[in-house]
Amino acid sequence: MKKLGILAALVFISCAGAASAAQLEPYKDSLFAYPDIIKTGDDGDYVVVNYNELRDINARDQIPERRVKQAYVSMQPKRSQKDLIVTTDAGALKVMAVGNLDGGASVITLYLHGQGGSRQQGMNDYTFGGNFNRLKNLMDKNNGLYLSPDFTDFEAKGTGEVSGLISYFKAKSPKAKLFVACGSMGGQLCWRLGNDATISKNISGLILLGSLWDDKFTSSSAFKRRMPVFFGHGSRDPVFPISNQEGFYQKLRAQTPGYPVKFHRFESGNHGTPIRMTDWRLVLNWMLSVTS
Fold it and tell me: What is the pLDDT of residue 166?
């Protein structure tokens, strides 16, 4: 199993080719690396991770699903963390931020929550096995910026709000690669942003975690310019069946051979498993390596 894990990591590295994009420095990689890779396919683009609740929740959390063990977190990002109100053309938006707010950030990661969530979800240091805390640390330590906003809905209003937020922060850090990660129903916003020819120019990649698909994306300008897409999905997801998401992943690959898309299947995982288990550094470094 360990050999497969090493192989998967090497495949990610080899995909970078001659790209010279900056890479995020390691942070607690030994704790957050995939614990047991069952299988890889599609030249490393498809990875099956063995998810085990006894190991990945009970042994990792001090209080299962509520508080991860202290070894997984660092509170250093609290020094730069702020709760802001940003005025956009679509109205004022509450957003929590960590990292370089002064301008000149090298990378920006924006997390959009799902149904019933709020900006607090993506800033919680202790839930989801400390995975959001790792993302905060990765941005804070690498001259990056991490954003977790509230928004009105998953339709036109919410799309306008998030678009305004993206434009605001890209204006402050115009050279930054900006990645949008969407959990569950938040994926509807991911696709709406990706399908918008104007705002998608400011987006360098989409990350779908236990989320949905959109057949219209293959007709978008973002798809034509080969915007990277990552899918993380639990095999037992009762909200969005994995067969549909895997089918869409294969559609992207088939329509444009060599398209930059990856799928990480968490075997026996549920709806929230990808948010807990996805290796942020692995995914973001791959996206940084394949974007111009």
Answer: 98
What is the C-alpha to C-alpha distance for residues 36 and 49, in angstroms, rounded to an integer? 6
Answer whether residue 88 shows pLDDT above 80: yes
pLDDT recorded at residue 110? 98
Q: Decide: helix, strand or coil at residue 8.
A: helix
Phi, psi at 4, each rounded to 5°: -65, -40
Encode 157-194: b = buried (16+ Cβ within 10 Å), e = exposed: ebbbbbbbbbebbbeebeebbbbbbbbbbbbbbbbbbb
What is the third-level CATH fold of 2-290?
Rossmann fold (3.40.50)
Q: What's the rounded Cα separation, in Å, for the pair 185 and 93?
A: 19
Structure tokens at 91: 């109205």
Question: Whole-prediction pTM value?
Answer: 0.93
pLDDT at residue 16, as a whole number: 40
Q: Which tokens hold the place of 88?
A: 């956009």
Residues 249-264: tens digit of each pLDDT:
999 999 999 999 999 9
Only one residue has tokens 């995914």, namely 283
Instruction: Specify whether the CB–CB gap between 71 and 31 falls below 8 A.
Output: yes
Question: How far is it, in rounded angstroms, from Cα 9 to Cα 252?
Answer: 22
Instruction: Kindly state the helix (H) or strand (E) to which residue 103 belongs, with its residue range.
Output: none
Q: Which of 129, 113, 138, 114 is nearest to 51 (CA)?
A: 129
Each domain of the chain, given as residue ranges in start order, spans: 2-290
Would you say the C-alpha torsion 254, 258, 259, 265 has a positive or negative sign? positive
Mean pLDDT of 64-84: 97
Number of other CB atoms surrounding residue 237 within 10 Å: 22
